[in-house]
User: What shape does this take?
Amino acid sequence: MPQHDPHQVCRSLFYVVSRLIFALLMSTIVGSPLWAQLPATRLDAVFPPGTSPGKPVEVTIAGANLDDVSQLVFSHAGITAAPKTQPAGPFDKSPQPVENTFVVTVAANVPHGQYDVRAAGKYGVSNPRAFVIADLPESLEVEPNNTADVATEIQSPMVVNGRANSPADVDWFKFTAKAGERLLIDCQAQRIDSRMDATLIVCDPAGRELASNREGQRGDPLIDFTAPAAGQYQVKVFDALYGGGNDYCYRLSIGVLPHVDFIFPPAGLAGSNTQYTIFGRNLPGGQPAGVSVDGTPLQKIAAAIALPAGAAAENLSLNCLIEPQQGGLDGVEYRLKAPQGLSNPMLVGIATAPSVAIEAETNDTPDKAQKLTVPCEVMGQFYPMRDEDWFSFDAKQNDVYTIEVISQRLGLPTDPSFVIQRVTKNEQGEEQVQAIATVDDWGQRDGGPEFDNRTDDPLYRFVVPADGMYRVLVREAYGALTSDPRHVYRLAIRHEKPDFRLAAVPGDSSGALLLRKGGLDTVRVVAFRRDNFDGEIQVSVSGLPAGVTCPSVVIGPANNTATLVLSAAENAAPVTGIVQVVGKAKIGNADVTRTARTGGAIFAPAMRQPNQQEMSVPGRLTRGIAVSISADETAPVALQAGGDKVWEASRAAIVKIPYTLTRRAGFNGKIDAFFADLPANIDAPTFAINPGTNSGEFQITLKNNTPVGNYNFYVSGFAQQLAYSRNPEAAKAADERKKEMDKIATDTAAVAKTAADAKAAADKLAADTTAAAKVATDAKAAA
Assistant: This one.
């Protein structure tokens, strides 16, 4: 039913449409009108969160603003869905859809892997949720199964889809194993967009705990279980914090399944097809690897992995979880194919230097530093416990190198750092060591709270101060506490080769990117700059639906972000399209074009107040950005500023930009506005647009050290007392349905009354007839 509150305070976001160029600064400010935090389709959960090709499966969805959702849209055309319907009732004219329930069919040729699914309804095409296509039989948890005596039975190998339906919900399953059989029990939860912090416990028939795990891989538990005897065993699944709800789903797989723990080396040269060592469990033909994880020995096999070259090497595989900090890497997905099925996916990277070296195992002290020929990329391990790796190389004065470690960005729970030293000898031939730099975490939260791309990996631009030998010590903060061979790393020491990658994230990525007529929405673009590239990046959008426009923007020097503003015409027709963001830059003499990867939040962040720091929420790369135009709603307010012109100023200048405000649907409230995406060292105080005011100006003040360059900024804010009637069409339909039901009730009552009157008349006639018969009988008897 609709909600209408004339005193509703509605968060609004609007953008200054103008350009500002600073003399010397050459700064661009681009912005636009208003986006309000009005309803947008949000998909929180899909259950079951996956299936296998073949038999159709019934899927339910949960979320917010799911009004009139009639479609599920998958990132693979071979996965389709139709609304589930139930037969027409006595008062229905046709079969009726079952709310938020669909029948999903997967074509036989759909590759196994993880895809995106979105819900499409009145308030646009939603954010994506993970949907897994597996090569194993599938089943569903059967409630009640919250105690061991009513455990759901699983036939290994199998995937069972379950959910912690409520806080403190515990799910029990039982399975049969042969003596000595090595079963992998894997619970996918956080890897498939679930809120569940899952924990697994395996028990014997007497209820004794045999194994448990909470943090096996990427936040999800994995148990490597070898049955001590033939018989039935039980596995318990629950949320570690005893949470529950629709978005606490999981996929539990049990079987003699292959599992890859890590691949070494973790990267190779573009265009190569070389041998790698696959470390894992239940590997076909696997040999003892000589290393263990949590006391469990691993196996190893050799396999050739082909890596792409050229433009194809710039792609990043998306059939597994790729977190925001990984968004600037290049790599491909690898899955081991075994008779029992496919393994979990692993990312194999594309090396960033022209040659690859393997860490020597004897480089644990400075005097045994491994000699490198740079530029190169070294593949190593933070293993065993308290491992320290030393490397040395010769360099010439004024040579420039990028030195970085890639480890946490491989999806590992590591925190690497490195130390650079200059090594000389005195007249007595004794080593003299000078510390050049100690380098730890790198990066800032360019993607905001919904796409936090900060990393624990270190990066440093090294300008060689003099000819000679230099040493690098690589170590890891948790290495004194853990001994895990999976903790691999890549140490790159390379000449600068400036480049960039991009990621594009909808302004509110936890819901639909919905444009109301005459309204706007945003896409935040994050630049992953490489090797001191500080040039301008011209960013534009292609594939926009008809009726939508978006001016290009510039990511200026000393900046890693810009905001694209998508604007819908007031007469735009309802439509949905998948847009593509492209960045172009001049690097040296070359024109370089990069297509942006796309990403977003997994969960909705809390609404922030002006100038309040938001807590980051989990995010990942996604498969495209869907843009929708509303069929029947118009944006209530829009701010335009500066006109389509270039604004020019010098350092320390005060820039005043005029604006006009378009108010619609009777909105006349106050707007509290504040700025976003400004470069450093600019004063931009918040400002208010009071009721009844439709024009004015705001100002920004440059400082003496404001960085030179082209920039884009926008203004966001809160619109107060914005009246909004939610889904009046539903109210109208409900009213029509009520009238229809009232008429049926009235007609039924009239028919019932007619029937009752007829029955009363018939009863009276019968009574009269009986009385007359009695009179006749009595008269006859008297005669």
